[in-house]
Amino acid sequence: MKTKKQKVFLQLGSNIGDRVCYLNLAKRFIVDEIGSVKNESRIYESAPWGVSSQDYYLNEIIEVNTVDDPYTVLKKILNIEKKIGRVRKKKWSSRIIDIDIIFYDNFIINNKNLTIPHEYMHKRNFVLFPLNEIAADFLHPIFKKTVNKLMLKCTDKNEIKVYKI
Question: What is the pLDDT of residues 155-164, one digit of tens each?
Answer without folding.
Answer: 998 889 999 8
